[in-house]
Structure formats: structure tokens, C-alpha cells
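Reopening this ticket.

The earlier resolution said the output was attached, but the attachment link was broken on my side. Pasting everything inline this time so it's all in one place.
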Amino acid sequence: MQASYTHCTVLLNEAVEALHVQPDGHYIDATFGRGGHARLILARLGPGGRLTVFDKDPQAVAVAEALAATDARVSVRHQGFSAMAALPSGCADGILMDLGVSSPQLDDPSRGFSFRHDGPLDMRMDPTRGISVAEWLADADMAQMAEVIREYGEERFAQSIAKAIDRRRQERGPIRTTAELAEVVAGAVKTREPGKDPATRTFQALRIFINAELEELQQALSASLRVLRAQGWLVVISFHSLEDRICKQFMAQHSKAVYDRRVPFAEPQPMALEAVSRHMPPEAEVAANPRARSAVMRMARRTSSARGARA
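Inline output:
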């Protein structure tokens, strides 16, 4: 029997409030997870409202399909959220992206996301597709490993870690479990911030890389401009600086009027987004759920220049 893992939704009420849910609107929960945000959106939708949910994780999809079986307003897609690009133009009144890994994924040793629990070194959001971290580490050269750990984990000891992994492969064969990788990293990282495990940045880097998380985020953000109808809201919750930087830059870029320097007297192209703002979890939420401490929620509204009638 499969174990049950709990998930505490971060910024639950704040995120749904930021969507400004209209009873007959169509909303997209781009990262369903265990459905905390989705259920609250549904509670605010009327009988004519619709909710489309995306998720790569088969376990999350099973939860979403069970919800859809009891609520005809829900449509489920077993895909990464960049697949929203295939939706009709101007079809959504709001899009919510809750990025990163969920508590059930971290807490289930069989998924291989966490250095705190020994398990197979997998880390795929969808374990039915692609290669695992263990498979990638078995073949990657030192330069590739160092680049991934440095770029996606912002790890200053990336070169030392890559050398340690390579040495471990030569001496004892491929690294197959989370405990083995955490041990190798701990031996290569000589200093670390107080209270932070030496393996934190490396595990983050490998997870982001193996799931192409940043590339998918960039694709999904671009798609959101076409999918959102005028005055629709984009709400993104991120948990580390790389994600947040992409969101911040995207929203800043599209909240400015664009001038064509080749035609100095032409009217500027109107900005695509407006009302950009940021929200952090309150102290009480962080105290109750430590995983909320690094969350940043950014919000932007599609301008009236957006096209598309209700789909």
C-alpha cells in the first residue's frame, strides 16, 4: 500500500485572492500538486466556471483526475505547464504557477528528491519519462557536472563536487542512491551556511536540470501572454532565486512600453502587463510551515491590449 504524504499549500489564500476569481471565469492551475490552490479556486467559481490543471507527476495527476471525476468544471492535463501554449488564445482569466517540488515529492524516499531520506537517485517530476539523475551522473563528464551544479545550484564548490563524483565513480562505480550522493557532496564541501546541509545546492541543481525546470518556466511565461485575456491575472510563486529572477525580469520587461528605435516618431507598442507587485509569506505561515520561508509571489495583470474572446 502506498504511503500517504501531507502537503501544506504555501500562500494558499493570498495566491487565490491575487487571481481575482470571477464565478464564470476560466482559470489555469499550472502546477496542480495536491490541489490546495485548485480546490480554493473551485470554491469561488460558479457552475459555469472552468479550471484547467497541469502536472507532470503521475501521483498528482491521479489526485486531479479523482477531483475531476466529481467536478465537471475541472479539466486535467498530464503535461508540464509549458504545454499551456497549446490552449486557445485569450482563453484564461487567470494563471497560477506554484513552482518547485512539493512536500509529498520531497518526503517520499522512492522519488529521490531529498538528501534527508535514502532512496533511488531519481528526481524526475514524471518518473515515466526521461532519465533519472543517477543515469545522467553515470555518463556526464566532470565539466558538464560542474556547470550544472554551478549554474542551477549557485554552488561555489561545484568543481570540487564534480571531481568527487568522478572519483567515486572510478573507485566504486556509479552513484545510485540519495545517501551516496549526499555523502560524496559532504566530503567535497568544506564549509556551509549554518543550518544548511552541504548537499542542498547540489540536489537543487540536479533536480532543476533533469526536469528542465527553468526552460519550462520561461516557455510557460511566454505562453501566458497569449493565453491570458485582457485584465487576466498571472500569479507565480517561486522558492529560489533562479526562478524568482526569471519571473521578475519577465514581468518587468513586459510592463514597459516598447519603442522602435528604427522609427523614432512612431507610437510605442503598449505594455503587455501592468500592476506588477510582490508578496512574501507572513511570519505566522513561515512558523507553521518552514518550507514557506523562501517563497516569493509575484503578480501581474494582462493589459487591455490582450486579444481574444471567451473560449
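Reporter confirms the inline version is readable. The chain has twelve helices and seven strands. The longest strand covers residues 228-238.
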